[in-house]
Amino acid sequence: MKHAARAIAEQPARCSACTAGRARRALRSMALGLLLAASVLFPGLGPAAQASDRAAGIVARSLEDIDYADVREALAEAIAEEGIAAPVVSHFADMLARTADDLGHRANLYAHAEILTFCSVGVAARLATEAAENIALCPLSVAVYALPGAPRTVTLAYRPPALDSAGGDAARALLARIVARAANLVGRP
Q: Beta strand 140-147 with 150-158: parallel, antiparallel or unpaired?
C-alpha cells in the first residue's frame, strides 16, 4: 500500500485539459470497440436490421398529434397515481446530443427523449421473494420520446420482464397500466 501511495505522489501533475482529452479518446475507443464487438456477436443489429428485430420485446404505444411535454407530464402523473414516489428522470436525448462528437453519432437522434425510472415496493418485494436475482429487474422504466421528423408523434415504450411468475405478471400489469393511464390523461384512450 505504501508503494502505491508513493508512486501516485511521485507522478507529475497533469493539466485537466490533457486528462480530459485522454479520457474522451479512451471513451471513444472503448465505445467503438463495443460497437464492433456487438456487430460481430449480433449481426442482426447492424444498420440493415429491421426495426422489429431491434425492438424485440419492447412494448410501444405512439400517440399522434400531441405535444411531447403533455405526454411526459401525463406519464409522471400516471406513475404518481400508482402511489409510487416521483420517478428518476434520465435525459436521454440530451445525453446523446452531448456525446455525439465523441462517439460519432448524429446529435439529433431524438427531438425529445427521457426515461422515467421508478420502483413499486409491492412489485419489487414480490420479485425479490421469488428469486434474489430479480433485483436486476428493478427499477422499472418507461421511455417517452419523439423523433426529429415527427415531433408531434410521441411514443411511450417499456421492456416488460420476461418472467413467467406472479412477480413478472405484476410488473407487466403495472407497466401496462401506467402507459394506458398516461394515454388516457392526454385524451388518447
A: antiparallel
